[in-house]
Protein backbone atom coordinates (compact mmCIF):
# COMPACT_ATOMS: atom_id res chain seq x y z
CA UNK A 1 0.00 0.00 0.00
CA UNK A 2 1.28 3.48 -0.80
CA UNK A 3 0.49 6.46 1.43
CA UNK A 4 -1.92 9.11 0.20
CA UNK A 5 -0.74 12.68 0.55
CA UNK A 6 -2.68 15.85 1.21
CA UNK A 7 -1.07 19.09 0.16
CA UNK A 8 -1.12 21.88 2.72
CA UNK A 9 -0.18 25.53 2.14
CA UNK A 10 2.05 25.58 5.22
CA UNK A 11 3.37 23.38 7.98
CA UNK A 12 3.21 24.66 11.59
CA UNK A 13 6.48 22.93 12.47
CA UNK A 14 8.76 24.67 9.95
CA UNK A 15 9.66 28.36 9.96
CA UNK A 16 11.55 30.06 7.09
CA UNK A 17 14.33 29.94 6.17
CA UNK A 18 14.52 26.15 6.24
CA UNK A 19 16.34 23.33 4.50
CA UNK A 20 13.59 20.83 5.35
CA UNK A 21 10.22 20.09 3.82
CA UNK A 22 7.01 19.10 5.54
CA UNK A 23 4.64 16.55 4.01
CA UNK A 24 1.31 16.29 5.79
CA UNK A 25 -0.88 13.18 5.69
CA UNK A 26 -4.39 12.48 6.89
CA UNK A 27 -4.16 9.42 9.18
CA UNK A 28 -7.27 7.61 7.95
CA UNK A 29 -6.05 7.87 4.35
CA UNK A 30 -2.83 6.11 5.26
CA UNK A 31 -3.96 2.92 6.93
CA UNK A 32 -7.74 2.91 6.85
CA UNK A 33 -10.64 4.68 8.50
CA UNK A 34 -10.00 3.18 11.94
CA UNK A 35 -6.31 4.08 12.03
CA UNK A 36 -4.86 4.84 15.42
CA UNK A 37 -1.91 7.11 15.95
CA UNK A 38 0.28 4.09 16.66
CA UNK A 39 -0.84 2.42 13.42
CA UNK A 40 0.08 5.52 11.43
CA UNK A 41 3.48 5.81 13.07
CA UNK A 42 4.25 2.15 12.38
CA UNK A 43 3.18 2.56 8.75
CA UNK A 44 5.35 5.63 8.27
CA UNK A 45 8.37 3.97 9.79
CA UNK A 46 7.86 1.04 7.43
CA UNK A 47 7.75 3.27 4.35
CA UNK A 48 10.04 6.17 5.16
CA UNK A 49 12.71 5.03 7.59
CA UNK A 50 14.14 2.11 5.65
CA UNK A 51 17.05 4.25 4.55
CA UNK A 52 18.10 4.97 8.12
CA UNK A 53 20.31 2.69 10.15
CA UNK A 54 17.91 1.38 12.75
CA UNK A 55 20.73 0.08 14.89
CA UNK A 56 21.91 3.57 15.80
CA UNK A 57 19.06 5.75 14.57
CA UNK A 58 21.16 7.75 12.15
CA UNK A 59 21.33 8.27 8.43
CA UNK A 60 24.71 9.76 7.69
CA UNK A 61 24.78 9.52 3.91
CA UNK A 62 23.99 12.84 2.18
CA UNK A 63 22.87 11.01 -0.97
CA UNK A 64 19.68 9.60 0.55
CA UNK A 65 16.55 11.60 1.36
CA UNK A 66 16.23 11.58 5.12
CA UNK A 67 13.12 11.62 7.27
CA UNK A 68 14.14 13.82 10.20
CA UNK A 69 11.02 13.52 12.32
CA UNK A 70 7.36 12.50 12.44
CA UNK A 71 5.11 15.00 14.22
CA UNK A 72 1.43 14.35 14.96
CA UNK A 73 -1.35 16.80 15.77
CA UNK A 74 -5.12 16.45 15.97
CA UNK A 75 -5.67 16.28 12.22
CA UNK A 76 -2.45 15.37 10.46
CA UNK A 77 0.75 13.40 10.56
CA UNK A 78 3.62 15.64 9.46
CA UNK A 79 6.75 14.18 7.87
CA UNK A 80 9.79 16.44 8.28
CA UNK A 81 12.09 15.53 5.38
CA UNK A 82 15.01 16.88 3.37
CA UNK A 83 14.00 19.69 1.03
CA UNK A 84 14.82 18.97 -2.64
CA UNK A 85 13.93 21.96 -4.82
CA UNK A 86 15.69 20.99 -8.04
CA UNK A 87 13.16 18.54 -9.46
CA UNK A 88 14.00 14.97 -10.46
CA UNK A 89 16.33 13.34 -12.96
CA UNK A 90 13.48 12.37 -15.30
CA UNK A 91 12.52 16.02 -15.79
CA UNK A 92 16.13 17.01 -16.46
CA UNK A 93 16.67 14.25 -19.00
CA UNK A 94 13.40 15.19 -20.72
CA UNK A 95 14.47 18.83 -20.82
CA UNK A 96 18.13 18.30 -21.77
CA UNK A 97 17.74 14.98 -23.62
CA UNK A 98 21.13 13.66 -22.58
CA UNK A 99 24.13 14.46 -20.43
CA UNK A 100 27.81 14.81 -21.13
CA UNK A 101 29.86 11.87 -19.92
CA UNK A 102 31.40 14.03 -17.20
CA UNK A 103 28.09 15.09 -15.67
CA UNK A 104 26.54 11.63 -16.08
CA UNK A 105 29.53 10.17 -14.24
CA UNK A 106 29.08 12.64 -11.36
CA UNK A 107 25.44 11.69 -10.97
CA UNK A 108 26.15 7.97 -11.30
CA UNK A 109 28.93 8.13 -8.73
CA UNK A 110 26.59 9.77 -6.21
CA UNK A 111 23.86 7.23 -6.95
CA UNK A 112 26.28 4.31 -6.54
CA UNK A 113 27.53 5.73 -3.24
CA UNK A 114 23.95 5.98 -1.96
CA UNK A 115 23.26 2.42 -3.11
CA UNK A 116 26.46 1.20 -1.47
CA UNK A 117 25.23 2.61 1.85
CA UNK A 118 21.79 1.00 1.43
CA UNK A 119 23.18 -2.38 0.40
CA UNK A 120 25.68 -2.29 3.24
CA UNK A 121 22.81 -1.73 5.66
CA UNK A 122 20.87 -4.65 4.22
CA UNK A 123 18.38 -2.65 2.14
CA UNK A 124 17.52 -3.25 -1.51
CA UNK A 125 15.65 -0.31 -3.07
CA UNK A 126 13.76 -2.26 -5.80
CA UNK A 127 12.41 0.80 -7.64
CA UNK A 128 15.33 2.79 -8.99
CA UNK A 129 14.33 5.15 -11.79
CA UNK A 130 15.03 8.79 -12.71
CA UNK A 131 11.85 9.96 -10.95
CA UNK A 132 13.30 8.75 -7.65
CA UNK A 133 16.56 10.68 -8.00
CA UNK A 134 16.01 14.21 -6.72
CA UNK A 135 18.17 17.34 -6.95
CA UNK A 136 18.72 19.63 -3.98
CA UNK A 137 18.62 22.77 -6.13
CA UNK A 138 18.16 23.89 -9.74
CA UNK A 139 21.86 24.25 -10.58
CA UNK A 140 23.55 21.93 -13.08
CA UNK A 141 25.96 20.81 -10.37
CA UNK A 142 23.29 20.13 -7.75
CA UNK A 143 23.85 17.14 -5.44
CA UNK A 144 21.33 14.31 -5.77
CA UNK A 145 19.21 12.48 -3.21
CA UNK A 146 17.87 8.96 -3.62
CA UNK A 147 14.20 8.88 -2.63
CA UNK A 148 11.05 6.72 -2.42
CA UNK A 149 11.81 3.60 -0.40
CA UNK A 150 8.18 2.44 -0.53
CA UNK A 151 9.10 -0.85 -2.27
CA UNK A 152 12.40 -1.38 -0.44
CA UNK A 153 13.06 -4.59 1.46
CA UNK A 154 15.50 -5.49 4.19
CA UNK A 155 17.68 -8.57 3.86
CA UNK A 156 20.45 -10.34 5.72
CA UNK A 157 23.80 -11.23 4.19
CA UNK A 158 23.36 -14.02 1.65
CA UNK A 159 19.56 -13.78 1.76
CA UNK A 160 17.52 -13.40 -1.41
CA UNK A 161 14.02 -11.98 -1.73
CA UNK A 162 11.26 -12.39 -4.29
CA UNK A 163 8.20 -10.66 -5.65
CA UNK A 164 7.40 -8.29 -8.49
CA UNK A 165 8.81 -4.79 -7.96
CA UNK A 166 10.20 -2.03 -10.10
CA UNK A 167 9.06 0.12 -13.03
CA UNK A 168 8.80 -0.49 -16.75
CA UNK A 169 12.15 0.04 -18.54
CA UNK A 170 14.11 -0.24 -15.26
CA UNK A 171 13.08 -3.63 -13.84
CA UNK A 172 15.73 -6.37 -13.87
CA UNK A 173 15.21 -9.54 -15.95
CA UNK A 174 15.38 -11.87 -12.95
CA UNK A 175 12.41 -10.05 -11.41
CA UNK A 176 10.36 -10.55 -14.58
CA UNK A 177 11.36 -14.22 -14.63
CA UNK A 178 10.01 -14.74 -11.12
CA UNK A 179 13.40 -15.64 -9.68
CA UNK A 180 14.69 -14.73 -6.23
CA UNK A 181 17.08 -11.78 -6.18
CA UNK A 182 19.07 -9.37 -4.06
CA UNK A 183 20.97 -6.10 -4.53
CA UNK A 184 21.85 -7.02 -8.12
CA UNK A 185 18.47 -5.74 -9.29
CA UNK A 186 19.39 -2.23 -8.12
CA UNK A 187 22.59 -2.41 -10.16
CA UNK A 188 20.62 -3.36 -13.26
CA UNK A 189 18.28 -0.40 -12.77
CA UNK A 190 21.25 1.92 -12.21
CA UNK A 191 22.71 0.64 -15.48
CA UNK A 192 19.49 1.52 -17.29
CA UNK A 193 19.60 4.99 -15.76
CA UNK A 194 23.18 5.42 -16.96
CA UNK A 195 22.22 4.33 -20.49
CA UNK A 196 19.32 6.82 -20.48
CA UNK A 197 21.49 9.67 -19.20
CA UNK A 198 24.04 9.14 -21.96
CA UNK A 199 21.68 8.50 -24.88
CA UNK A 200 18.26 9.89 -23.96
CA UNK A 201 16.58 6.53 -24.60
CA UNK A 202 16.09 3.37 -22.52
CA UNK A 203 18.12 0.34 -23.65
CA UNK A 204 15.08 -1.93 -23.90
CA UNK A 205 11.74 -0.53 -25.01
CA UNK A 206 8.92 -1.52 -27.31
CA UNK A 207 5.48 -0.15 -28.16
CA UNK A 208 3.82 -2.18 -25.39
CA UNK A 209 4.75 -2.99 -21.83
CA UNK A 210 4.73 -6.72 -22.61
CA UNK A 211 7.06 -6.11 -25.53
CA UNK A 212 9.41 -4.11 -23.32
CA UNK A 213 9.44 -6.86 -20.69
CA UNK A 214 10.26 -9.43 -23.36
CA UNK A 215 13.13 -7.27 -24.66
CA UNK A 216 14.51 -6.91 -21.12
CA UNK A 217 14.49 -10.68 -20.62
CA UNK A 218 16.17 -11.27 -23.97
CA UNK A 219 18.87 -8.79 -22.96
CA UNK A 220 20.08 -7.89 -26.45
CA UNK A 221 21.84 -4.63 -25.64
CA UNK A 222 22.62 -2.34 -28.58
CA UNK A 223 24.50 0.93 -28.95
CA UNK A 224 23.06 2.74 -32.02
CA UNK A 225 25.59 5.03 -33.75
CA UNK A 226 23.45 8.06 -32.93
CA UNK A 227 24.53 9.00 -30.29
CA UNK A 228 26.78 6.15 -29.12
CA UNK A 229 29.42 6.65 -31.82
CA UNK A 230 30.46 9.78 -29.93
CA UNK A 231 30.48 8.13 -26.49
CA UNK A 232 33.64 6.58 -25.09
CA UNK A 233 34.46 2.88 -25.00
CA UNK A 234 34.82 3.09 -21.22
CA UNK A 235 31.26 4.37 -20.83
CA UNK A 236 29.89 1.55 -22.97
CA UNK A 237 31.96 -0.96 -21.03
CA UNK A 238 30.45 0.15 -17.72
CA UNK A 239 26.93 -0.01 -19.15
CA UNK A 240 27.57 -3.55 -20.43
CA UNK A 241 28.89 -4.69 -17.06
CA UNK A 242 25.90 -3.22 -15.19
CA UNK A 243 23.33 -4.50 -17.70
CA UNK A 244 24.66 -8.04 -17.58
CA UNK A 245 21.91 -10.68 -17.62
CA UNK A 246 24.20 -13.04 -15.71
CA UNK A 247 23.57 -11.92 -12.14
CA UNK A 248 26.85 -13.39 -10.90
CA UNK A 249 28.81 -11.30 -13.41
CA UNK A 250 26.93 -8.04 -12.85
CA UNK A 251 28.98 -5.35 -11.13
CA UNK A 252 28.52 -4.53 -7.46
CA UNK A 253 28.44 -0.93 -6.24
CA UNK A 254 32.08 -1.13 -5.15
CA UNK A 255 33.19 -2.52 -8.50
CA UNK A 256 31.24 0.11 -10.42
CA UNK A 257 32.67 2.92 -8.29
CA UNK A 258 36.17 1.69 -9.14
CA UNK A 259 35.48 1.47 -12.88
CA UNK A 260 37.88 3.69 -14.90
CA UNK A 261 35.03 5.66 -16.46
CA UNK A 262 33.64 6.68 -13.05
CA UNK A 263 37.07 7.44 -11.65
CA UNK A 264 38.22 9.55 -14.62
CA UNK A 265 35.04 11.38 -15.57
CA UNK A 266 33.16 12.10 -12.35
CA UNK A 267 35.45 15.05 -11.53
CA UNK A 268 35.16 16.77 -14.89
CA UNK A 269 32.79 19.28 -16.50
CA UNK A 270 29.15 19.64 -15.54
CA UNK A 271 27.33 21.07 -18.59
CA UNK A 272 24.54 19.03 -20.13
CA UNK A 273 24.63 18.30 -23.87
CA UNK A 274 21.31 18.71 -25.75
CA UNK A 275 20.31 15.95 -28.15
CA UNK A 276 16.98 15.26 -29.87
CA UNK A 277 15.80 11.72 -29.17
CA UNK A 278 13.19 9.56 -27.41
CA UNK A 279 10.35 11.50 -25.78
CA UNK A 280 10.15 9.72 -22.44
CA UNK A 281 7.07 9.02 -20.42
CA UNK A 282 6.63 8.38 -16.74
CA UNK A 283 5.74 4.83 -15.76
- Please give the CATH architecture of the largest domain: Orthogonal Bundle
Computed over alpha carbons, the radius of gyration is 19 Å
Q: How confident overall, as mean pLDDT?
A: 78
Q: What structural class is derived from the secondary structure elements?
A: alpha+beta
User: What count of helical segments does DSSP give?
Assistant: 11
Order of helices and strands: EHHEEHHEEEEHHHHHHH
**Mind summarizing the main beta sheet?**
3 strands, antiparallel
Strand content: 5-15%
Output the CATH homologous superfamily of the largest domain: Transferase(Phosphotransferase) domain 1
**Number of E-state strands:** 7
Shape: globular
State the domain count: 2
Q: Report the top-level CATH class of the largest domain.
A: Mainly Alpha
**Runs with pLDDT <50, length 5+?**
1-10, 29-35, 41-60, 269-283
**Percentage of residues in helical conformation:** 25-40%
What does the model show?
The chain is an alpha+beta fold and 283 residues long. The chain folds into 2 domains: 63 residues, Phosphorylase Kinase, domain 1; 177 residues, Transferase(Phosphotransferase), domain 1 (Orthogonal Bundle). It contains 11 helices and 7 strands. Strands 1-3-2 form a 3-stranded antiparallel sheet. Strands 4-7 form a two-stranded antiparallel sheet. Strands 5-6 form a two-stranded antiparallel sheet. Helix 4 packs antiparallel against helix 6 and helix 6 runs antiparallel to helix 9. CIPK serine-threonine protein kinases interact with CBL proteins. Binding of a CBL protein to the regulatory NAF domain of CIPK protein lead to the activation of the kinase in a calcium-dependent manner. Keywords: ATP-binding, Kinase, Nucleotide-binding, Serine/threonine-protein kinase, Transferase. This is Protein kinase domain-containing protein. Pfam families: Pkinase (PF00069).
